[in-house]
Amino acid sequence: MKLSTVFAAGAVALSLAAAPALMPAPAQAVGCFTGAAAGAVAGHYAHHHAVLGAIGGCIAGHHMHKVQKQRAAAAHMAPAATPSPAMTPAPAPTPTPTHT
């Protein structure tokens, strides 16, 4: 085999092996789109600052989604608030009236 063919095959194999490492990470834009839309509308009515409103709305929407997700995870992990039967106190005995 020719050296150039081996070199070309090695270069193709190396580029295919490195391709997954060079792929971009997926965007975490949950909450950003709705926040940006609301911020753009609010910014438009606040002296035509739709772009600044969209940027601020995106940041706020992403943060609010993150907080909501953390609260849902905390509520899911929290144990039930109902007391167990062993923890309920026994009723106090009622005193019997004494007749003197």
Task: Give a quick precis of the structure.
This protein has 100 residues and is mainly alpha-helical. It is built from three helices and no strands.
Overall description:
- The chain has 100 residues and is mainly α.
- The chain has a domain at 29-74.
- 62% of the residues lie in helices and 0% in strands.
- The protein has three helices and no strands.
- Helix 2 packs antiparallel against helix 3 (50-77).
- The protein is elongated, with a radius of gyration of 32 Å.
Radius of gyration over C-alpha positions, nearest whole angstrom: 32 Å
Task: Give the oligomeric state.
Answer: single chain
End-to-end separation in angstroms reads 121 Å
Principal-axes shape call: elongated
On the 0 to 100 scale, the average pLDDT is 78
Structural class: mainly alpha
**What share of the residues lie within helices?**
55-70%
**Main sheet?**
none
Order of helices and strands: HHH
Which runs of at least 5 residues are low in confidence (pLDDT < 50)?
none
Q: How many beta-strand runs?
A: 0
Please give the count of helices. 3
As a percent range, the share of strand residues is under 5%
Question: Topology of this structure?
Answer:
Blueprint: H1 3-22, H2 32-45, H3 50-77
List the keywords:
100 residues; mainly alpha; 3 helices
